[in-house]
Amino acid sequence: MKLDGYSLRATGFGKLRLSALVIAAALPLVTAIAVHAQTTPAAAKPVAKPATSGTAKAVPSVRLGIGRAATADEITAIDIDVMPDGRGLPPGRGTVAEGAAVYAAKCQSCHGKDGAGASADRLVSTDSGPNFNFATDPKLVKTVGNYWPYATTLFDYTQRAMPFMQPGTLAPNETYALTAYILSLNKIVPADAVMDATTLPKVVMPSKNRFVMDNRKGGPVVK
């Protein structure tokens, strides 16, 4: 028998050699078929569409079996945000004099004496340029006195983020006192001012009218 130019006997060892050649010749074809079967994507299964009639049903949450629900006290402990209108301010009070003592102990090492700035930002300045020129004059430094729009959010930021190395450790009275002291340094409130949940929202910051509420409702609106 002839196969690809080779002369083989059809009996004995020749049959074995013929079988081996046939298998060897067929292997690439079998391999190609197997690879094609592995790489050909299966027919996509139809995806069930959500019901369109009636009230949409909420997708049930997946329980992972870890953790637990937060307690009311735990939620209250981190629910400390204060709104511009004063909503969220806690009970307490603080004076300018008290704030000066807290500032010297916990803030001055970073923000400098009298809020003049050091390794951290300057806090005191009333210079905003002839026309609120922060966007065009890099020499102008944004501070509480010349840029901050709401005294209440000064309390909010100080309470949640300061001191830098121990954020969230200030008591409400300390935060009220620090807010009063920083506002006094910027000549926004008098030296005998007392800040609390009633008086702080009434403080009008010099830059309040430089900001507007974002009332865009979507679409190609530039404001």
Query: What's the number of structural domains?
Result: 2
Strand fraction band?
A: under 5%
State the helicity in percent bands: 25-40%
Strand order of the largest sheet: 1-2
Unreliable stretches (pLDDT < 50, length at least 5) are 1-27, 29-42
Protein described:
With 223 residues, the protein is mainly alpha-helical. The chain folds into 2 domains: 7-36, no CATH class; 81-210, Cytochrome Bc1 Complex, Chain D, domain 2 (Orthogonal Bundle). Helices cover 33% and strands 4% of the residues. The chain has 6 helices and 4 strands. The chain has helices at residues 13-39, 72-78, 96-106, 108-111, 151-161, 172-185; strands spanning 2-3, 6-7, 93-95, 194-196. Helix 3 crosses helix 6 and helix 5 packs across helix 6. Residues 1-27 and 29-42 have low confidence and may be disordered.
Give the key terms.
223 residues, mainly alpha, Cytochrome Bc1 Complex, Chain D, domain 2, 2 domains, two-stranded antiparallel sheet, disordered N terminus
Structure, briefly:
By secondary structure, this protein is mainly alpha-helical. It is built from 6 helices and 4 strands, in the order E-E-H-H-E-H-H-H-H-E. The protein has a two-stranded antiparallel ribbon with strand order 1-2. It has a two-stranded antiparallel ribbon with strand order 3-4.
Sequence-ordered SSE layout with sheet pairings:
Blueprint: E1 2-3, E2 6-7, H1 13-39, H2 72-78, E3 93-95, H3 96-106, H4 108-111, H5 151-161, H6 172-185, E4 194-196
Antiparallel strand pairs: 1-2, 3-4
Helix pairs in contact: 3-6, 5-6
